[in-house]
Structures are given as C-alpha cells and as structure tokens.
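User: Could you walk me through two proteins back to back? I'd like the raw sequence and the structure tokens for each, with a short line separating them so I can tell where one ends and the next begins.

Assistant: Of course. Protein one, sequence then structure:
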Amino acid sequence: MVGPVLVGAVCGLAWAAALRAYMAELNGLVSEVDGVGTFVGVLLPGVLVGAGLGAAAVQPRTARTQLRWLAACPLLFAIVPLAFPGALVTLLTTGLGGGAVAVALGGIAGGYALGGRRLWARIVCGILPVALLAGIVVTVPLVGGPRLSLTDPRGAWVACLVGALLVVLMIAASLPFRRLRAGATSPAAGWPVRTRQNGTMRATYLFAPGDVRVVDVPDPVILQPTDAIVRVVAACVCGSDLHPYRKISPIEHGTAMGHEFVGLIEELGSEVTGLAEGDFVIAPFVWSDGTCDFCREGLQTSCRHGGGWGSKDVNGGQGEAVRVPFADGTLVKVPAGFDPALVPDLLTLSDVYSTGFHAAATAGVRPGMDVTVIGDGAVGLLAVLAARELGAERIVLMGHHEVRTDLGRAFGATDVVAERGEEGIARVKDLTGGDGTHAVLEAVGYLDAFEQALGIVRAGGTVSRVGVPQYTEGPIGRVQFGRNVTITGGIAPARAYIERLLPGVLDGSVHPGRVFDRELPLEEAPEGYRLMNEREALKVLLRPQPLSEGRATLPG
C-alpha cells in the first residue's frame, strides 16, 4: 500500500500546485495569498486526497464506490482550509469544484498507474499527471517566490525535471507493490506456475460407471465481474463422488468432477474487492453470493443465487483451474506466509472437516457429553475430531477398519466399536450404562446406519445426519416422538465454518489432513477413484501438474 499512497500523494501535490499557479495567474492574486494559505488551502488537501485515492484505486472498485471517493474530495477542500481563515482566499482563488476534481483525478491516476489490471491503463494513468504538469504552469517554490511558465526556458527545464522525478517515483514505488498479473503467483508462496497449452487445461470427467478420464477442456475465463479464476494447487476425491462413479447413467460428453479444492487466484473480475491476484484461497464445496438472506444467516448451501461445482459454465474442482462465481462471497483467503505442508489440512476445510464439524455443531455437542460417531470414513473421523474440539467427554467411534479407527483414536475417540446393527447398538449401550449417548453423528448415508443411530441415541438426545442419504424413507414415527429424539444435520454450509476452523489449522493444534493417505498427480485421478471405491485408500489427494504427452481430449 506504500507505493500507491506515495504516488497518489505526489500526483495530488503536483496537480494542486499547478492548478494553484494557473488560477492565481488568471486572477492576478498571487501577492494576496500567503504561504500558510497556499499550503493548507491547496497543497495539503492535494496530498491527502491524492494519497487516499491512490490507495483506494489499487483495489478493483465499482463505479459507485469510485464516485463516493470523488464526492468526498470537495469536503476535504472545504473542511481543511477552515482551520486557517487566511486560507479561504486561496480556496476561492483556486476554485472549489475545479480543485477537487483535479486532485481527485490525480489521485485516481496515481493509483491506477500502480494497480490497473491492464498495462495500457497503467501507462496512460502514469503519463497523465506528468502531461498536465508539463502543459500548464510549474511553480518552483511551493510558497511564494517567482513563477516559471513554459514560455520561459527555465520553466521547460523544471517541467521536464519534475516530470522525470514523478515517473521515477512511480516506477520505483510500483515494483514491490503492484498487483500480480493474471497467471502469476505470489513470489513468497513458491508455488509452481501453471503451464497453459493452446487455451486448454486438464480436468477430470466422468462418462459412465467406473469410467473416469482426465481430458483437455477450455481454460476458464472471467464471465461476470464478480468472478475469479483460481489455479488449483490441490484437490481430492470425495466419498460422495463414489455414488455417481458407481451408478451414473452414461453421458456422451461426460460431467466435470470434484468439489473440494484450494489454490491461487490467477485473475479477478472488476467488482471483486476483498481478494487479490496471488492470494491462496479455500473454496467451499458450493459457491454462494455471500449477500442473500440465507448467506447472512450462515446457510450458504441454500444461497438464492448459488450453485455447485461442475454445473453449466462452472468447472469441477478436479482440474487445473476453476472459474469461481461470486468470488467475494465464496472464497476464503488464507493469510500469507503459511507452511505449504499445511495444504492437505487446509483442503479438508473445503468439505470433510467442515462437514464433520457441522455434524457435531448441529447435534449440540458440548463439554461433558457422550457422543457416538457412525462411520470411519474421512467425514466420520473428522466428526470425532470436531467432537473432541467441542469438549465431548466420551467419543465412541463405530467402524471396523483398524487403520482408520486407529486414526480415529488419535483424533480423540475414547472407544471403538466394530460391531454393527443390533450387536453394535448393544455394545454402545453397555459402554454408557444402558442409556446410549447424548448425540449420534451419522456419517455414512445408508438406511441401516440411520436405524443404528436411532437405536443408540439416548432419550432427549440428537441424531445428526451428514452422510448423503441413499434412501427416501426411514423410521421417524411415534417411537422417536415419545423419546423426544431430535433429528437434525444436513448438507454442511462449509463457508460458515471455514473461518472458525482455520486458526486451529494454521497454528498446528489440529491436523485434519491426516485423512489423506494417498497423494496422486491429477493425471492419475482414475486410479484415485478406483482406490477409494475398493477401499484401498481412505481419501486421495490430487495435485495438478503439467504434461507434455498422453493427453486425452473431451469428446465433441
């Protein structure tokens, strides 16, 4: 921000000085304006407004916001001189409206000289103040003294000198602070640069049951001013991806896959204000505008204008890049300087950790409670972690894969029950004095798991379902009514939880990324699906990488 402020201030000072000299010459009032009046009435507001607008213009702004800044300029011109009555003469001399607009334009030019997204805009805005400075009248002493004009040889030399100084300041200030160009990455991050080939990228598509391919598709582009293009650093295969993998009807052109990813912003639409190119961001598994009533209530999964990845004109997450609608409302920025080894942990916030936390939160888990988690998949294991973080005293994990349940114990499970059905229900009740547990977090999605949860929950307790249901009817009737059992859960609004969970990931107090037991390049995504489908892997992380050969092409 130092660079834009510096250039904006210099531009504002130059414009104000030139305008003051020009107006004073026209009105013949140079001798009537004292030094303090000149400084306070014109030059100081010029510096302040120029610096402020230089800072504001660096970030992409809507026309409405920019107009607000312009409207504020006359206020500064009006308020600041009132502190010095002698400055009122100068204020009237320079002209209130003309001075405000001139300095505002100078500040905007200075800001866009650094922050403009197009090279030509930066060049034009950089030259503009210099051209004005050289084209009107230059005053060497800012307070009093002789005036030089371009009709005087000395004036021409001074104009050139000041102009050159301004250009040098712009270049020097812009180098460390200007915004990254589209496609660039943050120098501090050290991420590899994405290699583009003929306007295409690599992405994972599903064509039929078991038929996953990584194919060439068009590179995403900005379609709306609220969009962002994110280069994917890491994505993954979700357990819910296995449902279509097993039983989808054949699709000739395939369907884009993946809804969990983290990455770097490559390009921003003109109305995105809270993000910058080069930022590392987490994408929740749905996109949302962040402004509708549901989003404000923390239920972004019901956003009135939102949607899912892989829908029309929106890429799936298992690819090299993704167009993100409503970037300000969807993406969560990760503070710079984090350890790249945390990428797997950060990726879990996109879905599985947030979903596990949603299970515990909607069940009302709090200190001293007994909790049962059904399912030893990634969501179930992270529901264990979430229950521990919320203070549960006893956490029973129901699963029968020893490697996974061992990880569950590391996350905080106090007991493991391998039995299922009636035997599993009886075992949990034995552990809890015959009552069952206060909360049951069901992370499987099948009817038998839901029935098991109803058998385990104690009277007055809560069953929270976060496994995607693979059934349409279940036992919700007089029995549960009589026991005062609450049934809750649902699709997790990950966007509402990411900022709450992020600090624990960044400070290393939790490591949810331990659920990733396989890591593959994007080109091996079909193998990742096979490994998870055959339960040879708990969760597969995919990292895009450029290829020079063996590229498949999307049919049609």
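----
Protein two, same layout:
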Amino acid sequence: MPTPKRRQPPQSEDQHADPRPSSRGADSANAESNASSRPGMSSRDGSEIVGSSSTSAAAATLPPVKYTCRSFCMLVLGCVFGALAILIPASRLLRGKHLAPALTPETLPPFAIFGGVISLMSLLDSVTFALTPPNMYLFKHMMSYLHTVQIYSAAELRLADLLHDAPGGSLHVDALAQQAVPECAAVPAAERSSSPASCHAVALRLNRLLRALAAYGVFAEDASAPGLWSNSGASVFLREAHPHSLRAVALNFGGVQYRMMEQLPASIRSGVASFALTHGDEFWAWYQAHPAEHAVFDTTMTQLGRVGGADAAIAQDVPWGSRASVLVDVGGGYGDMLAAILAQHGAAAAAPAAAGGSSSGLQAGIVLDLPDTVAPARALYAQRHGAALATTGAAGAPAATGAAPVHGTPPPISFVGGDMFNAATIPSPAAPDTLRAQYALVAGALASAGLANHSGIRVCSHEGLVVDAAAAALPAATVHRIAAEAAASLRAALVAAGSSDAAGTAAVAFPLQLRGPVGYTLRDIVHDWSDEHVVRILGSLRTALAGRAGPLATCFGGSADGAAPDFSSVPLPAGHPSTHDAVFLVARLVRPGVSFIESFGTNDADTVMLGAFGTTAGERTQGHFEALLCRAGLALRRVWPTRSHYFVLEAGLRSAAEAAAPCPAL
C-alpha cells in the first residue's frame, strides 16, 4: 500500500496553465484515488466516493509505485521464460550426461563446496517437489520400485561388463543378447523366428530393458545407430571390476533385500522383522546358512562404504592421529575404512606434522571381527593392499617388522577374532605400569583350533590362557604345545605365569599389549541391534577402556557368561590414562525436518533396519546415542561431521561428576 501523502491546498489557475503535470497535483489525485478504494472515505468536496468514473481515469490515477511493481514483475517473468527457453533445449542435450564427476576419494571436494552442492541439490529437489502435482509426485515414487528391478536385472545379466569388454565399448543389442544369454543360441534354427527363447526374441526384450534404463541415464544408445548400446557415466559402476563398483549393492538391493521388504506391513503390525517373515529365519542366521548370498552381502557392505568417497571422507574429516595411537575397528570386516584412516593418519603420513610439534600419527590398526571371518578378510586385504598387511599368525597379532611404513600407505593391519559382547576378547589398552595381555589373540588361536568352547580351556582376564587338563581330557604336554604354537605364530615369547598343581591346571600369559591411547571404531554396527544390545556392546568397550576385563565375561570359553552388569558402576583403575582413550561411533544421524538429500536417505536406511531386524534396531538421533552411551558408562565428547552420510561421534569414559548425574531418558 503506498505511503499516504500530505494533503495539499487547492491549486490556482496559474498552476494549471503549466502543461507539465504537477507532482503535488498527482499526489492529491493519488490521495483521492486511494480514498476511493476505501469504503466510507470522502473526496475533498465532501461527497462520498462510490467508485472510479472510468477505466481511463483509474489508470491515470494509479500510483507510480504500482507501475514500478508491475514493471518489476514483468521483468522477472521475462527472465523466467527466457531462462526456460534456454534450459529446456539444454536439458535435452544434457539428458543422460553428468556434469559432476563421480564422488571418489580423488574427487571429494572441500567441505565448503561439498556443503554448497548438497544445499543446491536440496533446493532443486524442493523446486521439483513444488512444481509437481501432488498425485503425480506420489505416483512417481510408486513407480520407483521399477528402477531397483531394472538395475538389478542389468547387474545380474552383467551388461555393463559385456559392453566394457566389447571392441570400442559398444555392442548391438543382437550381439549383446547372445553374450548375456548364451543359451539362446541353442534354439534350433527352425524355431528361431517363433521361439521366445531365441536370441532374436531375447534381443527384443533386452532392448526394452535398456531403453527403460537409458531414460534415467543408465546406459546409452547411439542416436545415429538404433540398437547400438554402450555404458554411460552411471552404468560403469555396475561393472564388477570397477574400483568403485556398486554391482553387489544392486544385486543385494534387488534380490534378498527387495524381497525382505514385502512383509513390512505385517512387520509393523506384529513387531516381527520383515526379513524373518519373508525368509523364515532371523537375519544373521539366514545369511550364515546361505554362503553365496552372504558373500554378496559382505561385498555390498564394502561397496557401500565407498559410495561417494565415504571411507576417504571419514579418514580426512576427523583428526584421527591426534585422537589415538592405535585404532581397533570393531566389526571392521575387510579393513577398508581402517586402511583409509591409517593411510591418511599413519605415523609415516603424520611425520611432517610431528616435526612441527603436532601429532605423531596412528601407530597401528586392528580389525576385530568374528573368528571365522579373520582368514578370508586377511587374504582379501592382502590382495588389495599387499605390503600394508601385517605379518600375522593364526590369531592375528601384529608381528615386529622393523620396517617403517611408506608414506601414503597404511601401517600394517592385524586381523583378530573376537566377540564385541565379550570384553575379554577385545584388544584393550595397557595400564601404564602393567604389561596387558591381548587375550583376544589367544582366544582367536583357540577358535582356529576348534577349542574355543571346550569346557576345560578358557581365556580369563586375570590369568590368561587357563587349561584344566582333567576337564579338558588333554595331556599337559598337549596344552603347552597349543600355547607354544600360538606364541610362535604371534612371534612373541611365551611367558609362564602359573604353575601346575595336582589337578593339572596351567596358566600361561602372552605379553602382547596395546600401548598408548586406544580408539575403538564401530561403523554401521549398532544400528543392527536393540538398545539393550547396544549398551552391552558399548559396555564391553568401556570395560576394555578401563584397562581390565569386567564381569560381563571374565573368561572366554568354559562356562556360559553371566548376566550383563551395570557398566557405569565399574571402577576405573587409578592412574589409567582414560582421557586419551575413546569410542568412535561412525553412524548416520536421524535429523527430523532435514530433507532427503541433506540426510543422504537416512530415514530410508532406518526403514531397511526396520525390515531387517524389526522394531528393536535402527538409525538413531544424537540424543538417543547420548542416552545409550551414558548407560554404558561413556559420555559423548564431540560430533564430527564428514563429507558423506556419516557422522563420527566421539565418546570417552564418564568422569566422577558425570557418573553422579542421571542418564537421559531413552
């Protein structure tokens, strides 16, 4: 609404003689015109103004500010339509092409640029949402299940690999059909024109699949030669041999995981995991019984860690070298994340910084996982990283190599078998004045020998390897031979810490320890478990950080474990450098109100956890993590954002003052 003008006195006739319009006269006319638009207002002669006398009069009395607004709006509309006139043809030219490179460790942009790109993508997504009719927007997402099936089919048929291996990187669909489905050539010649199994019929169906994929940039057809196909910037990631391949992800998402979600409504009603309803068994038990699918799942987890350069972002965006001397990656699988961290922050990589008085870098890395995964993980890691693998024995202890790691490559990594629910199997920091044995290494050796659950053999937090010869029905010589072989493979001297008595009990200890500040990392681990189990896992790590094995599992093997204790009440040994040790949760954070793009689909990942494990597991908010850490005797110290979908939550042992305060409600 225009600013009201001060009423002016009547103009003289001499003023009207000037052919130029008077600004004060215009102001007066504006006031009268404004008054005419309000009920109950009067003109200067006292008569009530009912309306304008004519269209031309109304136009003549429009305020200049309205002309300005109208002109501005016309200018904006002109710019919009002009931009559309340019963008619409350009979008057709760009269809199927990516202006941005794939996110890999080599192309990961700086934090500021990364954040700007994510914000721009979120803005464009919001514009698309605003301009799309709501029913069509919903229908579009209903149809997106087809994309999963189409990509899965292309991955299963190995189309990307076949096109990559073809001369010139392209194949006509007829030749592609013969290579993708070689059995089609077995159709008799007389039936090739009519049989649905013939190569001609396969080619027709394959071409329809490729057309559907090409519509959203997966594969590309030569515009001048219909039926001639090649890989696009997106489809190359379906190649199995690509260094950043997503083929296993496609097979898993479109296979086991796709079928898993079919029973999600029943899971929501009952609380039983959709996976169990679909496959007839609990998630991990089913995978253990299906080794082929388990292998695809394991590879999927590795490939997901590399999506968007996640491993590199986690390695680069947290100052790991100043947080710990040794990292133990709990449930670390094949060691890819740990290798990326050590390559960035290992002692050799940090040498220039140390010369300037900064951190000396990480000294070692250990992957702690289930005993039966150690051997294949070690072999695959050696294949990928070669010299970066530590010389390890049966139990996975690091050997003394004496050679400094090469700059840019990780220090030797050890693979250790253990149980994250069992504090006695977790490599833990040594107290300053004590040689702390790595009982997990001995436990791994026993597991490899098939003796982990033997009633007469156990590894105890206070005694080391304990064998009751009578209960084990093993000769004492055999007991010592087992211990000696384990020690030799670990390249460490066997130290006798006990004696034999009448019952034939012998105790032996291995002087292997983790020196300096220790950090435990867990990535994509706790979202598989209920709150109760997460507290147990974190409690085991808290007990390990406290420098001794707590009552959760005094011994590995032997009798069954007792009930889980309240870890927040476990006393901290005097003089232990607790302020330097930490637990790092590498996890997605649920952030209500954040867009899909800004959250990197965290809510979708939470739905996957709902389908896989039911209502007891899932992604969590920062407040939820704080409450769980508190119940395990830990406290959140810092949250590190990364240029990926992961946040790194750093936690340490609770102080006496923190221990006196109640934990937040879950």
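The chain has three domains: 13-62, 145-254, 323-660.

Let me know if you want the two compared in more detail.
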